[in-house]
Structures are given as C-alpha cells and as structure tokens.
Amino acid sequence: MDAFVVAGLIPVAILLPHLLPLHRVDPAVAATVWMCVLMLRALTAIGAVIFVFVFMPRTGAYDAITHWCWHEALPVLATHLGLSGHPLAHAAIVLPAMALAGSLLWALFGLAQAWLLLRVKLRRTLGGGPLGSTVIADHEIVIGVSGIGRTRILVSDRALGAMDRDELAASLNHELGHIRRRHRPLRLLASVLVGLGRPLPGTRSAETELRFSLERDADEYAVRRTRDPLSLASAICKTAAAQSSAGTIGLGGSGRVMLRLDYLEGHAVRGGRRLEQGIGMLAVTLVGAVVALSATLPSWALATPKPEHTITATGAHCAKDVRAASLAPAPSSRATEAVPGNA
After folding, report:
1. What letter does residue 269 receive in the DSSP assignment?
2. Running DSSP on this structure, what letter comes out for residue 85?
3. What's the predicted TM-score (pTM) here?
4. pLDDT tens-digit readout, 255-268
5. Cα 169 from chain centroid?
6. 113, 246 contact by CB (below 8 A)
C-alpha cells in the first residue's frame, strides 16, 4: 500500500472509535478496538520522531525553514547577538525524540512508584480472606487486584465489615474476572503505550475508554458467576467514593461508574446485531493496521531518501552559483594581451 494512503488512513483509524458507541457492544471487542487505537497512536508518534530525526535534515524544505526562522523570524539572535543557528537547528531535530523518551520514562517511573507503594501496603497484611484474597489494613473500603507484580486480590478490613455476603462475593468475582480475562497485562501495556502516544491529542481519552471496557468485561464475568448484578452494583457504589490503592485495579474503576451501574441495573441495553458486527469488523481492521504498520515502520526508519531529495537548500544555491559561473563568458585573450601594449 502506498505510504500516502497509509498516512491518510491512520488518522481516520485513530479518530473513528471516538465517534462510535463502543459502550453498547461486547466489552471485550470494545477493549480490542481501544487497545489497537493506543498502539496506532504510539506507532504514529514513533514514526513522526523517525521522520523528523532521519528524513527532515535531508530535505531542502528543512534548510529553507530553518533559514527563514533564523534570519526572518529571529533576526536579533542572528544579526545583533551573532549566534549560529546550526546548534539550535540540530536541537530542534533531536527535541521530539527526547520528548518521546522522556514521556516513556515518566510512564515507567509511575509504574515503578506504584509497585513500591503496593509493596509498602502489603506489609500491613492481616492474613487471608475469602476466595483466596489478602486482607490489608485500610481505613477505606478497598477491593481490588494488584496491577503489578504477584497477582493478589486485596480486600481491606473495613470492606469486610461494610459489605454483606452477596456484595462481597460479587466484588471478589469481579476481581477474579480481571485475573481470568488477562486484564492486568493489558493495563500495563496500555500504560507504556500512553507514554509513547502522549503527544497526540485524545490518548488519555482512549486509555480511559479502554479501562472502562475492561471494567465492564469484569462486571459481566462476575454476573455470569453469581447471577446477582444488583449486589455487584451495590458494592460498586460503596467503593466508588474510595480512591484505588496504588498499583491495584479497584472495583470502582476510573470514570463512567454511572454507565456501569445502568447496565447492571438494566437501564441500559446493548446495541443490535448490526452494530456488533460493524464494531467487530472494525476491530479486525485495526488489528491488521497495527500489524501492517509495525511491520513496515522499521523499513521506513532504515530507508534512504531519493537522491533528488538529498540536496539541501544551501547546496541548491551553491550549485546554482556554480552553474552561473560556468556559463559566464571567459575574458578575451586579445583584450588581455592589449593591456601591456596600451601601457
């Protein structure tokens, strides 16, 4: 597929899911769509950095733009202060790569910090709880699964006293759904992808939608096991006000709690068969786009621009001067010899 066609289709693939009612389809399919969107955003950001770092310095447009910025937009620096524009031009090329690396390191730092805070919290364990959970000391109603490190379902001592047996069973099955449905590695991968795609607008929104889809998927898992959606809704209401512990996936989730409650209480229904099929086809298309872009991105990074594009603006002016000099008429030998004679 032509590179220009791919460049035109990627923004459509990234933005289209934000316009569709994905909350009305199977949450697993919706989560697949949002995960692909995050991957496309991360690959797009990496591709943009590669283009700026590898291809921009080899084009005449780069020299033309830097020359204009330095001598027209910032004449004080160039004329009065006598500063050279080459170091700043080089810094402008490296800056996007440094910003992307910094964003990724910040995301990794957040994961490491969450892991350390979780380790501190696990030092205050009070023993084993129901369904293989671990009881921790906390003044808030906390029920969640560890998002980093060893898989554990965490229940605070206050949650054991605040919930009845049905609410506790529904909550624990919800957290078990996160484990059985492999949501933890998806959340970790999403954090890394957000770090890479952070410069693109809407990346945080895509991550929020992904987390909402994973929460709904865990809700449906719990309802299938307990046949008691109202108890799960009640437990979510009790834990929604509490902040999720660091490094855990809390029962209250992050955002759009009311929509989750609407589905559990029967106030919201899924879309029809056509919507499910359409979103399913979109998910397959996005998976193919991610695979294709991942396979072609290394070749773009190693590609060499065409020879006609490697002449810089300065080189073009120099070549023009050389051609003009070569076409200028040579001085006449007779005129040269006549000078001494006239003297």
Report:
1. -
2. S
3. 0.77
4. 688 999 999 999 99
5. 35
6. yes
